[in-house]
Design brief:
alpha+beta, 4-stranded antiparallel sheet, two-stranded antiparallel sheet, 9 helices, 6 strands, 9% strand, elongated
Length: 276
Amino acid sequence: MAFTTADEAVIAESLPVDALVTIFEQAERDIRTGFAQIAGALDAIDASFVLGGHSTNLRTGSRRHDIGFNFGSPDDAIRELRRDCWTTLVERTQIRRIMSIKAWETFSRELSDGEPPPITVETVNGMLAGLHADIPDMLKAAVDEVFNFLRPARSEYKTNTEFSLGERVVLNYYVERGFGRTWHVNYTRQQNLLALENVFRMLDGKVQSTAAGHYSDLESAIRACPEGGPCAGETEYFEFKGHKKQTLHLRFRRMDLVKKLNAMAGGKRLVPAGEE
């Protein structure tokens, strides 16, 4: 019986980290072998079809045969695959859902700019263990991060307050509509909404979400807005409206949790003397 796309997705979600690593290690070996075979075949063609000093040049794409790979060296292709797979591993193990905004930005920058480490059972388990150990500090940092981005300085919106959170807030450049007029969250703000949701769950005394993927409940609800229509809805902690000018309007459904956030992150203690 052939698997459907849905079947494959369920199988992928159920695979443990060690199984994923084993698959990647075999795939890397296969890619290196395949590149070497193609490079050998191109050598044979170039040795036989040279005319007037010109070869086929399939490796470099310097003529019309631009196929985008240097088959003589698979390292560039493997490097990009490692970057993608490291990101997926962090998301699949749910760690991204509880990372602070800064922790995610640091991880993404180091993965993008540096040399991604090999994907082995040892390196993956070591990386995940280190991130797990940092979870309490990341959640603590997220409280301050969330408190700060919910109080944009010199905001033009009356609902926004600089020193403590009220019932509503307006956030600029958080939502967008694509060419198909579908709603989505600006990718640079995804971690903000994850951190926001995690902080509210923590203040509510609940365990962190174990939902599949790295979308917050709030982002999932935004993505579910009807194509071409208005973007509005609610989640456990928030009511929201998205606007074409890329603003996200939030109303907090649990003011008791907002009060806790104000007290924990600074709140009215930040107000200059005489301005209470």
